[in-house]
Specification:
CATH architecture of the largest domain in chain A: 2-Layer Sandwich
Cofactor (chains A, B): a metal cation
Strand content of chain A: 25-35%
Family (chains A, B): Belongs to the homoserine dehydrogenase family.
CATH superfamily of the largest domain in chain A: Dihydrodipicolinate Reductase, domain 2
Keywords (chains A, B): Amino-acid biosynthesis, Methionine biosynthesis, NADP, Oxidoreductase, Threonine biosynthesis
InterPro entries (chains A, B): ACT-like_dom_sf, ACT_dom, Asp/hSer_DH_NAD-bd, HDH, HDH_cat, HDH_CS, NAD(P)-bd_dom_sf
Largest interface: A-B, 58 and 58 residues
Number of strands of chain A: 17
Number of helices of chain A: 14
CATH topology of the largest domain in chain A: Dihydrodipicolinate Reductase, domain 2
Oligomer: homodimer
Largest sheet of chain A: 11 strands, mixed
CATH class of the largest domain in chain A: Alpha Beta
Protein name (chains A, B): Homoserine dehydrogenase
Chain lengths: 433, 433
């Protein structure tokens, strides 16, 4: 009979502090579920003397990672320090020392998840990472267990809170990107260098993890086509609204037959879509399964306590497995070889805003170009551009292949009557105009 | 090494047919996860010769339950026949014969869940019932595992698709209850006798199961205060809309300290609440945890394939446990003794619509009555009632205890100026007027 279970923490920042608090505040509940106490025994920190808003005995803090990784009494390593290469080494060392690992590190899992899971299995250790995607939402568990019997064909995620906050404020209050970004930074929702969020890289990492699990196929970060939100204008948002759509940064993963595509890009979502009303810093993942149909999982995507909830729930999973003696048996290797769709296999509707010279025959020239490529129009708005000789044309296409659509885009730029292609986005669902 | 796993089905109706289809269609995925084939070996049916829309060898069908329950080769019994007393006997027999059980039966679990789980544990058998609440949404798993480390303080569920369909159509199209009910019956969303749905009993059963798990406290069906949707009028829905609310039949489970309350009742939800945009026959469960904050789980609440997905995912759980030799170890007995709130411990805002005689001093009399009981007004609308000497008064109160509010209601009925109390509902969140 195990008398108590000890965890070692790597990192005591935002998430680490939350983990310590939950283990302390919910000790009764944890004990009830696993039948013995849980203790945080050692914590790797950068600075032992730093003032912290969490109560922890100072003798538990160390600046030497070996005190945590090699402590024979520590059963589980909780990695909440972030970083990639060095952190990978720490986790590999922990696993090879037969210590289970719980991590919240999406960057690491997106890049080295497959390697780490293999080493974990070889050492009969658990490696859980629920917190790495969509913080407080138990989405990985839902994919792996709740929908285990189904065949997932589509996942769409609002998996970055910063960009969702920015787009919500821009849409609702008609404010400019730079203005809202500054507010998000002031509120702590955006980093001082927001590149990874606003350029879509953070979301792409999470989609790598989701697609790998949902499609049971090893998807790499390089497989994800990525476009961020920095070029979205107030005009784009106004037209979205007018057409019955809401602009969101959507991580999109779609399977047709044995081939998949994964992207992160600003998308016009029909207002009636469940994701369209996910606002502010909230995250949500929409999953379509052949048998179950539409499901959606909604919650806080980041933050100290929500992310820590996912970490400690994973810790509980490890501890339950310890009590049953079945650690290292739950990960399932990908079932399918990776097969990516080619651009002529990816179909979507698109929104396109262009400025053309306002002259006789301009529209006919455009129409001819699109119809040559078999790209047809679902909706069109044409308006004069103030104080200019230009007309603004907004088009929502019917379903077209990415190959055809990109050729149309290319040729548009070459047309003499086209002043500029102002913007172009994926469209999901039917708007209302 | 297990060579194959055999399941026996009790029932081959809507859900049972879905289970057979998923096991056949997704055999590759199931095998990949558990490493051996799964077979449906015997099926209890009422009529062996009935034409069915599912392919199954006729020799597998039987009208004798013992052929299923006592087949030594059957490892898992899947109960999708419905019913209560006799079905309970079957499941008890199965468990005592060391057969694991997966059930989709909310009626049974709401009434006998506690007994059945105890017998399952005594026999080292799994008893899983994800499909009993909110069909295709893996909500029980999310509560038990994903949010295992958190303390859930509030759950609100749209857990009955029939009533959500009816209320959505009434709200959006301004149609009358009877009219929409007839459509729902024609579409197969409502039974010919819709009582259990429209009076809230079906939702109450599901809330019993959710509250028991979420609060780790054995909640009985009798503990749930229940009010259905049959008295909701078009006027109520119009005022809701005007005040920035959406009317939903909400299963409400709330914990304050160690005391809980559980109810099912029509509720005015602020339009901004995530549940407010859950429409048509869809279900969703909103869970508030101390650490995680707001989460919501959305999906189809019923239907052959969605419900069957939950059943087969449970079956997979049983099979994984079989391979690991850890069946019958995952259920956790309630941690807390049942403590229900008294009416003076239940707080809410309320919507109230009354007809009063349109005479001098009427409003002052009303105001005095409310303020005596400490129930204050957040919003008031007063309008004359057409072709009468009456005025219609609509009130949204601030937070008040149920005790105070019910006394106000009682005394209103006794007031000479009050013609009638037309309607009264719980209110959740802030509207927009």
């Amino acid at each position: 009979m195990v008398k108590s279970i000890s965890a070692g923490l790597l990192g005591l920042g935002t998430v680490g502090s939350g983990v310590v608090k939950i283990i302390e505040n919910h000790q009764d509940k944890l004990m009830h579920q696993i039948g013995c106490p849980v203790e945080v025994k050692k914590v790797l920190v950068k600075n032992q003397d730093k003032k912290r808003d969490v109560k922890i005995d100072s003798y538990k803090l160390t600046t030497n990672v070996e005190d945590v990784l090699f402590d024979p009494e520590i059963d589980v390593i909780i990695e909440v320090m972030g970083g990639i290469e060095q952190t990978r080494d720490y986790i590999l060392t922990a696993l090879r020392n037969k210590k289970h690992v719980v991590t919240a590190n999406k960057d690491l899992m997106a890049l080295y998840g497959s390697e780490l899971l293999t080493v974990a299995a070889e050492n009969e250790c658990d490696l859980f990472y629920e917190a790495s995607v969509a913080g407080g939402i138990p989405i990985l568990r839902s994919l792996v267990e709740g929908l285990a019997s189904d065949r997932v064909t589509k996942m769409m995620g609002i998996v970055n809170g910063t960009t969702n906050f920015i787009l919500t404020k821009m849409s609702k209050d008609g404010r400019a990107y730079e203005d809202v970004l500054a507010e998000a930074q002031a509120l702590g929702y955006a980093e001082s260098d927001p590149t990874s969020d606003v350029e879509g890289l953070d979301a792409a990492r999470k989609m790598t993890i989701l697609a790998t699990l949902g499609f049971s196929m090893k998807i790499d970060l390089d497989d994800v086509r990525v476009k961020g939100i920095t070029e979205i204008t107030e005009e784009d948002l106004q037209y979205s609204k007018q057409l019955g759509y809401t602009m969101k940064l959507i991580g999109y993963a779609h399977r047709t037959g044995d081939h998949v595509e994964v992207s992160v890009q600003p998308t016009l979502l029909a207002d009636s879509h469940p994701l369209a009303s996910v606002n502010d810093e909230y995250n949500a993942v929409y999953v379509y399964g052949e048998a179950v149909g539409e499901t959606m999982f909604y919650g806080p995507g980041a933050g100290s306590m929500p992310t820590a909830t996912a970490v400690v729930s994973d810790l509980l999973g490890v501890m339950k497995n310890m009590r049953l003696g079945v650690n290292g048996r739950s990960a399932v290797a990908p079932q399918y070889p990776k097969q990516l769709k080619l651009p002529d296999q990816m179909f979507s509707k698109y929104f396109l805003r262009i400025h053309v010279k306002d002259q006789v025959g301009a529209f006919a020239t455009l129409t001819a170009l699109f119809s040559e490529r078999g790209v047809s129009f679902e909706k069109i708005i044409q308006l004069p551009v103030k104080d200019s000789e230009l007309a603004e044309i907004v088009i929502v296409t019917h379903q077209a292949s990415l190959k055809d659509y990109e050729e149309v885009l290319q040729q548009l730029n070459d047309l003499e009557i086209v002043k500029s292609v102002k913007s172009s986005y994926r469209v999901e669902g039917d708007g209302s105009l």
